[in-house]
Write a structure and sequence with these properties.
This protein has 139 residues and is mostly beta strands. 9% of the residues lie in helices and 35% in strands. The protein contains one helix and six strands, in the order αββββββ. Strands 3-2-1-5-6-4 form a six-stranded mixed sheet, with no helix packed on it. 12% of the residues are buried.
């Protein structure tokens, strides 16, 4: 019995040496980086979401994220509803090889929360939604 336990321990110590290393670029995250910005307000609209984010301590920036970006499991946008806390709402934009990859929006789950807002239906939002397939944050 003792020999079996010793053999199992030695096997557990040695087994990581034989683990395969994946060199496929799909698994290589070293070429990926992100930018995280705090969000002041989120405005849902018929075309998507208008996001007011902090550019610096005194200025706000505005971007639009199309609804179509949220539709797929491997889509360009993901909205994560977070439990109460101070680190959100926030917007994280991911880049791979210097090009836009996807965006994550961390939000309060209750639409009645102060970080969610309403826009007038007559507001012209076309300048926030372009045909571009990427997001450009201003700082």
């Amino acid at each position: 019995m003792k020999k079996l336990i010793i053999v199992l321990i030695i096997g557990a110590v040695i087994s990581p040496l034989f683990a395969q290393e994946k060199n496929d670029s799909k698994y290589n995250t070293s070429d990926m980086y992100y930018i995280n910005v705090p969000v002041e307000k989120i405005y849902p609209s018929a075309k998507g979401y208008i996001i007011l984010y902090r550019r610096n301590t005194t200025q706000l920036g505005t971007i639009g994220i199309l609804n179509e970006w949220f539709t797929d499991a491997a889509s360009k946008a993901e909205m994560l509803k977070m439990p109460p806390g101070r680190n959100w709402p926030s917007l994280t934009v991911f880049y791979r090889d210097g090009k836009f990859s996807h965006v994550r929006l961390y939000v309060h789950p209750a639409k009645g929360h102060q970080t969610w807002g309403n826009l007038p239906q007559s507001a012209d939002l076309s300048k926030y939604f372009s045909d571009s397939e990427e997001i450009k944050l201003e700082f």
